Amino acid sequence: xxxxxxxxxxxxxxxxxxxxxxxxxxxxxxxxxxxxxxxxxxxxxxxxxxxxxxxxxxxxxxxxxxxxxxxxxxxxxxxxxxxxxxxxxxxxxxxxxxxxxxxxxxxxxxxxxxxxxxxxxxxxxxxxxxxxxxxxxxxxxxxxxxxxxxxxxxxxxxxxxxxxxxxxxxxxxxxxxxxxxxxxxxxxxxxxxxxxxxxxxxxxxxxxxxxxxxxxxxxxxxxxxxxxxxxxxxxxxxxxxxxxxxxxxxxxxxxxxxxxxxxxxxxxxxxxxxxxxxxxxxxxxxxxxxxxxx
Amino acid sequence: xxxxxxxxxxxxxxxxxxxxxxxxxxxxxxxxxxxxxxxxxxxxxxxxxxxxxxxxxxxxxxxxxxxxxxxxxxxxxxxxxxxxxxxxxxxxxxxxxxxxxxxxxxxxxxxxxxxxxxxxxxxxxxxxxxxxxxxxxxxxxxxxxxxxxxxxxxxxxxxxxxxxxxxxxxxxxxxxxxxxxxxxxxxxxxxxxxxxxxxxxxxxxxxxxxxxxxxxxxxxxxxxxxxxxxxxxxxxxxxxxxxxxxxxxxxxxxxxxxxxxxxxxxxxxxxxxxxxxxxxxxxxxxxxxxxxxxxxxxxxxxxxxxxxxxxxxxxxxxxxxxxxxxxxxxxxxxxxxxxxxxxxxxxxxxxxxxxxxxxxxxxxxxxxxxxxxxxxxxxxxxxxxxxxxxxxxxxxxxxxxxxxxxxxxxxxxxxxxxxxxxxxxxxxxxxxxxxxxxxxxxxxxxxxxxxxxxxxxxxxxxxxxxxxxxxxxxxxxxxxxxxxxxxxxxxxxxxxxxxxxxxxxxxxxxxxxxxxxxxxxxxxxxxxxxxxxxxxxxxxxxxxxxxxxxxxxxxxxxxxxxxxxxxxxxxxxxxxxxxxxxxxxxxxxxxxxxxxxxxxxxxxxxxxxxxxxxxxxxxxxxxxxxxxxxxxxxxxxxxxxxxxxxxx
Lengths: 294, 648
Prior knowledge:
The complex is a heterodimer. Chain A is mostly helical. In chain A, about 70% of the residues lie in helices and about 0% in strands.
């Protein structure tokens, strides 16, 4: 310890204490959901309190450990409710959104990064400003355009188009920032050898920009996977709901089926959390070299 | 590239501008004439229906003479008219002129199962009449009118006798008014004339830009004015013709009805008033034709004046567009733009798909929303056009001009009006500042700790602490809402351990805020942590070593090395998280839901509630536009400030 202090390194024990407190704060709600989901009941409470609860009873009621384990909530959610169908809808919509959003954003960001052309600066500025458009302002017009004009109400294509385009500005900013850090000389050398623009993009730029593209794809996917206001507005057939809209069903309005909600939450969260953790190694490089830099 | 001469450019400009202007004018004129023809058909159809309703009222609804009266009435209406008369009581089809209702389906009879839509229509009309009578207003259409695919009009109107609704009519009447022809011959002629006049003028003037521009403008304006003048004349004539035709139609209907009543020996008291049959859909007389069977000249003059005014307004719009095209073309704008487009075609090609998508689904909805903010659009007038509901800046005045968020009560105390814009703005600022500060402090602190070399379990902590970012935030919000439940939530159970009685979290402003705050803090600090960690890792270790050699304390190192090094990454992250927090819809909407009484609403959720719970679309759009400008101003100022400090 003494040696560490001399070298300017802080003592580790207090640091561990702080991090452990924060980790508990982080984990408790997640454990709580697991506990409710596996309790097999619809109640919000982890444990029932006796009429005159003592300190131990109360302590039991906040320990995130169910009184008995049961997978009944998961079984009901997947069989009695069309939740599997909603998950499938969400998966299709999110995958298509990611492909559409990332490919459009890649090609636009590449042009913004590599070419000098009139409208470049205003274009980037416009993309930035569009991030400030309040959703409440565009929701009614979006409904009119998608449902009444394009006739895509209750269709997954409509949702994909909306999510795909709304994710573009953020993606372009991030990708453009990252493309800027890739030296232009590589492409110029390839061009001298006679490679086409498409080939240069696919063979040289794309592999080098993997972190940024992975993060862009992740964010596009998460936008589509987690969104519920637009989906609830555009989708009016129950079978075409996405998972978030369906999940709101369980605890919105007059129903309080917390068990179903918790089980559904876990089913919805697990894929996106795994994807996030898998891609998180790119988070630092993708974010700091890219969009978040002015 | 050889530059085209000014004369050629302005000639092209005149041709383009005049062609576009005249086409727009022609399309507008045709749409107006089509509306007029449609209106005339609807008025005549309503007159027919009202005449029949009047007849039935006089003949007596259940009388056997109903059939006679209906067939006599039908002789007067256009060929192909079908009428069915339904009595509300007993769902009885009293009479029908539909050829299908012969033989086995002869009237009078009960409505059959497949005639349910007809029955429903009757119920709707009954409800509408009752509602309007109860409210003393005219909110719901009492006469339903639809255009069928076959081109006929389908109407349904109530029949009253003795002040009670006894039944209704469902009538189909073919449209008779001629679709306006309008071959656009005048427009073509004017276009040719404008081009010819300008060509002659340009030959005379030579390569001088300003005279050319002036001459071109005059030619264009002349052509548009002549066309607009002719259009107004046409509309005026057609308005008068329509009123005269409708008046004649009503007179003829009245005469026929009189004859029918005479032949059936029914006393006519009070006398028939054909002019009163010309009503709108809530059965209020339009008063466009007089008792004497001629158009009401005062009303007609008013309608002509309004049509002229609208034509003038349209002319200004059209002329502005045309003139813009003319001048851009004349001063070489298009040729330059085309040149740029060709030169940078690769860049534009790469951007085009994204831009087209953004234009349709991001920028267009935005401008549409801003347009809505100037209207009184709400649940009850969604089918009206924007021009009809236009109220200018009134919504903005209502949002921004109401400073009364503290109101005095009768007892002398004060209450806060939580629906007031300035209260919500204040709360939103408090919300944003507290949340972003929390995110930055916690995120930075954790990043500093996790950046400590050889700290045990570092990767494990990192993964666990990043989890909230990965969780869908609407799920997070609902989880926290569940945990703050008064009776069963774990937070109150936890407080119970220390003997604190359960808190009703959502019943006071302060406690309600403290449910949303930890929720948002929970899901927002990982972002700051990751950004800070990334920036910290890129600081060379030598800097710290050098500082230590110089005897700098850790606080001095933090201030002199760490903060300046991570600033470039931290400042944009703070800006973006301010925007995110300011508009953090999900957390506030799902956790506090504005409780109690809308006090913990932030601007974006308040705007949502104005739109989708109070259905004031126009007001909500103005509210949202204000939010946008607040963010825009914030962005501009922030940008200035950070640039200034960077330069310093």
